[in-house]
Amino acid sequence: MAKILFFICCFLPVLLYALPVENITESDDEKIRAALENPDLYQGDIVLANPDRFAHSSDYVLWPQRTIIYSIDPRLAYISPLIRAAMKHIEQKTCIRFKPRTNEVHYVRIFNGGGCYSAVGRVRMGAQPLSLGYGCHYLGVVVHELMHAIGFFHHHMRTDRDQYLRIHWHNIHPNFHGQFRRLYSYENRIYTPFDYESIMLYGSRTFSRDRFSITMSPTKPGVVLRDVQHKRFLSKDDATSINKLYRCTN
């Protein structure tokens, strides 16, 4: 009996939040890229409640007590272990906590919509959307969308972007040129050096005119820009940025 109790106490939490094994194919990559590149959304996967308010420049969109209230639509019950594994990963690396909704007014509603998208930060609109539709059921994609909900835009928007990325405008689909606008310094806070491994930095073919042409490449030799589904986790600097944005003490 003692051995059984020891196993339950020590190993069951690990099993409950075990990170899934994912064998991602080229076909999956295309499916994921399409799900993250909605031409009707800002940056392909961002719902802007207020286009003039950027999370990095305002404490207005931070979640009180560093706690994100959420609900998971019953139609996503079959991937709830994946969603909770992504949340647990963020909790282990930062001071952010995720709490299931009871009767709170403002919360993140995680549902099966058309593609992957989220609002940025707490936008005080009641049930704010976080869609995990077809092509979004991968750990790195879920972590990426949760990072938006925490309060982060894409890494290629950073004010200092041009020092680290070459943008190949001729390879970008004409409808997506605006998705590569750099933020002004007053629109974002930069907490860490530019991070090629950030879960918020897309791969090299993002918003490509033909799905194959390179749209952005690193200025640093030897670096490969990987898609978020292949990174899967927060980078060290992602975690640092969250902790600094929310003024975590530990």
From TrEMBL:
Signal peptide residue numbers: 1-18
Cofactor note: Binds 1 zinc ion per subunit.
InterPro entries (UniProt xref): Astacin-like_dom, MetalloPept_cat_dom_sf, Peptidase_M12A, Peptidase_Metallo
Binding site for Zn(2+): H144, H148, H154
Enzyme class: hydrolase
Keywords: Hydrolase, Metal-binding, Metalloprotease, Protease, Signal, Zinc
Protein name (Swiss-Prot/TrEMBL): Metalloendopeptidase
